[in-house]
Amino acid sequence: MDSRIQFYLVIFMVTLATILSPTLAKLTPNYYDRVCPKALPIIKSLVKQAIYREPRIGASLLRLHFHDCFVNGCDASVLLDDTPTFLGEKTAFPNNNSIRGFEVVDQIKAAVTKACKRDVVSCADILAIAARDSVTILGGNQYWYQVLLGRRDARNASWAAANANLPPPFFNFSQLITSFQSHGLNLKDLVVLSGAHTIGFAKCSSFRDRIFNDTNIDNNFAANLRNTTCPRIGGDTNLAPFDSTPTKVDTTYYKGLLYKKGLLHSDQELYKGDGSQSDRYVKLYSKNSYAFAKDFGVSMIKMGNLKPLTGRKGEIRCNCRKVNNY
Ligand code: HEM
Ligand SMILES: *[C@@H]1O[C@H](CO)[C@@H](O)[C@H](O)[C@H]1NC(C)=O
Ligand SMILES: *[C@@H]1O[C@H](CO)[C@@H](O)[C@H](O)[C@H]1NC(C)=O
Ligand SMILES: *[C@@H]1O[C@H](CO)[C@@H](O)[C@H](O)[C@H]1NC(C)=O
Ligand SMILES: *[C@@H]1O[C@H](CO)[C@@H](O)[C@H](O)[C@H]1NC(C)=O
Ligand SMILES: *[C@@H]1O[C@H](CO)[C@@H](O)[C@H](O)[C@H]1NC(C)=O
What angle do CA 301, 305, 311 make, to 5 degrees? Predict the structure, then answer.
């Protein structure tokens, strides 16, 4: 066949496939510019108010987006309450009595629906935007990145998938790599996204084994936690900050890893002092906040692109906790 005809045929088929398959639609930064230009400013201002009321909520919102994206893609499945037809993700082991921020999401949803005069902003996009805004508010403009938008919301959720897909804190390095790889994320993504632990807190039950049994841990750091927040028996829900500045997005988390002061076993797995590539990333981010900020944004966008529902897939939920009834 004439190579020019062949060329046009390929173009034609690609165009046709794109038109016929809305699932190929990609997320874009300006998705709401026309349909609801007020959406992004409203979300930012409500996230700001929520952080003012309770500084930890920024961390909680950031984690919600992560726990959404790692379980069947960024589709707001994490927000769904249990129903007679499915057991939701909220009571899965990594989430039960641990993920938080649902009231803020509800408040944001109500406010954007009112301002847009209809339900156009998906719950999945609200999670992505609130995560970015939290990071920027707690870290400064250096930590701003562009969020891609146009996700739609799932009509189901899975307790089992949440258990299977979210990495637990006792994972070792190779298990963490395998988990992230299963989501198309690499070593750099793992190290830089773990930097989210620059904000927020963990419960004693998440780090007890580490402070009693790990050897790759600073002695005083461990003894102090054993004496105060996290005894061998009891105090399961007592909280400790991931780093010494739990309401500031900064490089302190990585600096702690250099001194064996990672709170979770999985945190310290990223730095062992053996000169690995993972060690080199930790060292870089510990001293270069520009590199951390830039790479964090790139990896957050990558994580935010995990299997979004687009086009005619899914729906725009009216209530982030429930699928729509038709
Ligand atoms: C690398 C694997 C990861 C593991 C094993 C892990 C595990 C955990 C655990 C166990 C907690 C404390 C939960 C509790 O005790 O209630 C936690 C908190 C948190 N995680 Fe991760 N995480 C990982 C990666 C991430 C990523 C990729 C993000 C976001 C991009 C993230 C964001 C957060 C935040 C912000 C908190 C604090 C939440 C709050 O204070 O409410 N984590 N994580
Ligand atoms: C979740 O936590 C509640 C206590 O708040 C407990 O009763 C329930 O059994 C837990 N669910 C799972 C699946 O662990
Ligand atoms: C929801 O259902 C779809 C189609 O049956 C499936 O591909 C997807 O994995 C399900 N999601 C969850 C969270 O179970
Ligand atoms: C990590 O954990 C897995 C599962 O327990 C184990 O098979 C593997 O040997 C561990 N890897 C290292 C390097 O310790
Ligand atoms: C530490 O390791 C021992 C032996 O493997 C185990 O029995 C114990 O549950 C672990 N955790 C703590 C907090 O001691
Ligand atoms: C922990 O408590 C013991 C006994 O109360 C005390 O001797 C020790 O100095 C404490 N250690 C730290 C690091 O606070």
Answer: 135
The tens digit of pLDDT for each residue in 146-183 reads 999 999 999 999 999 999 999 999 999 999 999 999 99
Residues 6+ apart with CB under 8 A from 6: none
User: Mind listing the domains of the chain with CATH numbers?
Assistant: 26-166 (1.10.520.10), 173-177+179-302 (1.10.420.10)
Q: What is the DSSP letter of 75?
A: S
Long-range contacts of 250-255, Cβ-Cβ distance < 8 Å, separation of 24 or more:
250/139, 250/198, 250/289, 251/198, 251/285, 251/286, 251/287, 251/288, 251/289, 251/292, 252/198, 253/194, 253/195, 253/197, 253/198, 254/195, 254/282, 254/283, 254/285, 254/286, 254/292, 255/286
> Both ends of the chain: CA-CA distance in Å?
51
Nearest CA, atom 4, ligand 5: 213
**Six-digit token string for 275:** 């000169």
Q: Write out pLDDT tens, residues 220-229.
A: 999 999 999 9
The H-or-E segment that residue 278 falls in is helix 277-287
pTM of the model: 0.93
Q: 96 CA distance to ligand 2 centroid (A)?
A: 6
Q: Is 156 in the pocket of ligand 3 (CB under 6 A)?
A: yes
CA distance 11 to 6: 9
Ligand 4 centroid to residue 171 C-alpha, Å: 8
pLDDT at position 22 is 46
b/e string for 43-58 if b means 16 or more Cβ within 10 A?
Answer: bbebbeebbeeebbbb
d(CA 231, CA 61): 29
Structure token pair of residue 61:
């919102």
